[in-house]
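Postdoc handover notes: sequence design on the structure in folder B. Input tokens:
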């Protein structure tokens, strides 16, 4: 860690004298340790609330589209609009707020998420719904850009644990939140689902406000820092690889149900659960490989490519089941491993490096989903899986080159 609390991926420092506390009191040591993890838990809750909100339209799409008077295809823009806003926001928010305390920014971004969900919950028309979703994109991109720095400021020297915790927030949102919101939407209507998301976002806001300590902006944050990060060829090569891998995943992931139903129609729910369980394991594996990031960023997209290739070519249920689980495992290693990789590639300008990682993901989500849809319409779901496999493999090869020790 630097003195400002930003990640440089060091070994964790022991307490002076090797003890937990100077007076040898285990009780005294437990207090600060517990306090340091409360902010990380609050930030993880914030990530879960934001990501859960991002994918809510997919859970309630038919009812939402009918209520605001648009087709289901048009209503799908509610997810794309969020990703587009995030892609624009991620590299610019630190430029616009170069000296603002990051705790204050995080609280403001969660307030924006609350407002976004309220707007969607009460909207009488689709244009206002899109406006609310654009605001959510700003909140998500900004929160992702600053959350790791805030977490490692509260828990110094534990960057891999913080990154894994934040990724577990994503897994919780996708594995638990999205299916639950679908059931809730069927039971009580789609608008109460967004009210619930607003309430969860408010809870996260209160948790961050009461547990996260002040986090000073990284010295020199702003346009100059972004320019210097952009000049880092190794970092930009890694960002390009992230685009390839995420693009490959999202060219196929929206059609995972079609891929499963090509093989079986009776085990869809269980296979989707298998993807989620694999994802949780992938999050944890990436954290465990924090000291071997070069291996993690090569292995994760390689596993993703292999799983997509198998799923696209097999007609057998056992092989398809294994491929689905490995798909979840491989792709969910990527956010943790690449977050730590870009931080180590640009340790003096971590905010800018992370903002570029977020931008890469948001661009890939938008473009991958759109192009994947065109591929499915033209060549079927097998074609989309194979396209995803090729792109993920290209990202793995690129990371292998970018991670080679420099002479």
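Designed sequence:
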């Amino acid at each position: 860690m630097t003195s400002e609390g930003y990640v440089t991926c060091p070994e964790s420092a022991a307490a002076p004298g090797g003890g937990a506390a100077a007076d040898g009191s285990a009780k005294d040591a437990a207090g600060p340790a517990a306090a340091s993890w409360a902010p990380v838990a609050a930030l993880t809750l914030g990530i879960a609330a934001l990501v859960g909100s991002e994918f809510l339209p997919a859970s309630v799409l038919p009812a939402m589209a009918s209520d605001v008077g648009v087709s289901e295809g048009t209503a799908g823009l509610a997810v794309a609009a969020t990703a587009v806003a995030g892609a624009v926001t991620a590299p610019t928010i630190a430029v616009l707020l170069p000296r603002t305390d990051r705790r204050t920014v995080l609280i403001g971004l969660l307030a924006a998420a609350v407002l976004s969900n309220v707007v969607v919950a009460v909207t009488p028309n689709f244009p206002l719904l899109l406006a609310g979703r654009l605001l959510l994109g700003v909140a998500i991109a900004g929160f992702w850009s600053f959350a790791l720095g805030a977490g490692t400021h509260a828990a110094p020297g534990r960057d891999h644990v913080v990154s894994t915790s934040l990724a577990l927030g994503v897994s919780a949102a996708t594995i638990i939140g999205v299916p639950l919101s679908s059931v809730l939407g069927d039971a009580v209507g789609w608008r109460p689902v967004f009210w619930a998301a607003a309430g969860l976002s408010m809870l996260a806001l209160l948790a961050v406000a009461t547990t996260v300590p002040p986090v000073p902006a990284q010295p020199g944050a702003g346009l100059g820092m972004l320019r210097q990060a952009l000049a880092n060829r190794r970092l930009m090569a890694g960002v390009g690889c992230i685009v390839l891998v995420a693009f490959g995943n999202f060219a196929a992931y929206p059609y995972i149900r079609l891929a499963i139903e090509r093989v079986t129609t009776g085990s869809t729910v269980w296979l989707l659960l298998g993807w989620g369980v694999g994802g949780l394991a992938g999050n944890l594996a990436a954290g465990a490989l924090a000291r071997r990031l070069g291996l993690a960023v090569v292995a994760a997209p390689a596993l993703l490519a292999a799983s997509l290739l198998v799923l696209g070519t097999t007609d057998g249920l056992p092989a398809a089941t294994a491929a689905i689980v490995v798909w979840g495992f491989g792709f969910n290693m990527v956010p943790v491993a690449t977050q730590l990789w870009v931080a180590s590639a640009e340790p003096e300008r971590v905010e800018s490096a992370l903002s570029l990682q977020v931008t890469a993901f948001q661009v890939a989500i938008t473009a991958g989903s759109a192009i994947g849809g065109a591929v499915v319409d033209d060549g079927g779901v097998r074609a989309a899986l194979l396209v995803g496999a090729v792109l993920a493999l290209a990202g793995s090869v690129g990371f292998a080159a970018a991670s080679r020790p420099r002479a």
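Context for whoever picks this up: Confidence is low (pLDDT under 50) at residues 1-32. Don't rerun without checking with the PI first.
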